[in-house]
Design goal:
There is one protein chain. The chain is an alpha/beta fold and 372 residues long. It has a six-stranded antiparallel barrel with strand order 12-15-14-13-16-17. Strands 3-2-1-4-7 form a five-stranded parallel sheet, sandwiched between helices. A four-stranded mixed sheet has the order 9-8-11-10, with no helix packed on it. It is globular, with a radius of gyration of 22 Å.
């Protein structure tokens, strides 16, 4: 690749820091960019939210680490504030989805609606035509079909394509994933070779604005800060045959597949099978009742083809850690696709994504609306 100016999205972690070091060593002009998306202390102490913010991505400590790496590499570094847009496009939809009885994926919302969109705009403003990130994925141009392809990485255990299914052809054409053919131990070793201070830094596991993964407490704290009364989304807990066995305090307290914290005792294990937003009923049942063969998706984004004109054999991921399962996909309307699995899958969850694969190639993906 000829020398060029590349903007690197630096989160302060080992992956993106190593990307900056790799590209700098290859002779490129590198500019480090960090997006300031959420004030980590904003809800501290409210509604029982913890004071500590350690261990979360995009924290102040991460910004500090990214700046130190940039200084070590001798590259320009900028922090871009997008807190207002992050709240509008990621946080607020996250809250509204849970209150509607759905289970959202904020990382995909952030990638699709904010990170790549805004990073590419800023990159061009500073004279960089391309953006590189620390995601484990691959991007290639297929001359035969004239399209950019998103592919799974060499190390499938680190595969992050599930969160990237919404990228457009324009975004993929200007995006680099230098770690696509590496595994994590190799990345850490390279970080050590470049003497990066974050070489041993642990990976962040949490949603950046939800400490400890306690989304219920976050919802309460956020609505309190906004001066909003939580809507009444309480209702009945019913079995799959319609028998009322209790009451619940709100559909936002549940997700499909959940077993603990149901608030009812029947002598046998029960799981959340379905959340009915219209009637505010939480349907519970046995584990075997969690399995479904079909799902419908909307807001579908296709990558490897311009349109889906008929049925297509693929494998489908319904969660980040889900092993892609064989299925048939077929269009059912504008930006809508029905998925029919060869074998029933467990806990198909509205609000999550279904991502379609042809081998290692991401065909596209959409948001799960319903399962049957």
């Amino acid at each position: 690749m000829p020398s060029e100016t590349i903007a690197v999205a630096m989160s302060g972690g080992v992956d993106s820091s190593t990307v900056a070091a790799m590209l700098r060593a290859e002779g490129h002009d590198i500019v480090g960019l960090t997006m300031q998306l959420w004030n980590q202390r904003r809800l501290s102490g409210r509604a029982g939210m913890p004071e500590s913010v350690q261990g979360r991505c995009c924290s102040i400590d991460d910004v500090y680490d990214a700046r130190r790496v940039a200084e070590t590499l001798g590259i320009p570094y900028y922090v871009i504030n997008h807190e207002e847009r992050f709240e509008r496009d990621v946080v607020r939809p996250f809250v509204e989805e849970y209150l509607a009885g759905r289970t959202p994926i904020p990382c995909s919302l952030c990638n699709n609606h904010l990170k790549f969109d805004q990073l590419l705009i800023v990159a061009r403003q500073i004279g960089a035509e391309k953006v590189a990130t620390g995601h484990y994925a691959r991007v290639e141009f297929d001359d035969r079909i004239g399209r950019w392809l998103l592919k799974r990485p060499t190390d499938n255990s680190k595969d992050q394509t599930y969160f990237l299914f919404g990228l457009t052809q324009g975004q993929l054409s200007r995006t680099l994933f230098p770690l696509g053919k590496m595994n994590k131990p190799e990345v850490r070793e390279l970080a050590r070779q470049h003497q990066l201070v974050i070489a041993e830094k642990p990976d962040s596991q949490e949603i950046c604005f939800v400490p400890g993964g306690d989304y219920k407490r976050f919802l309460e704290a956020y609505l309190s800060e906004q001066g909003e009364q939580p809507p009444d989304v309480s209702g009945e807990m019913v079995t799959t045959d319609g028998k009322v066995i209790g009451e619940h305090a709100g559909v936002h307290n549940f997700t499909v597949g959940q077993r603990k914290g149901l608030g009812v005792a029947t002598g046998s294990a029960l799981y959340v099978i379905q959340i009915k937003n219209d009637s505010r009923q939480v349907v519970v049942g046995k584990d075997e009742e969690l399995y479904s063969s079909c799902l419908t998706t909307s807001r579908v984004n296709l990558i490897s083809r311009t349109e889906l004109v008929g049925p297509m054999r693929v494998t489908v991921k319904i969660r980040h850690r889900h092993q892609p399962a064989p299925a048939m996909i077929e269009p059912t309307g504008p930006n809508e696709v029905k998925v029919t699995f060869d074998e029933p899958q467990r806990a198909l969850t509205p609000g999550q994504a279904a991502v379609f694969y042809d081998g290692d190639i991401v065909v596209g993906g959409g948001w799960i609306d319903a399962a049957s």
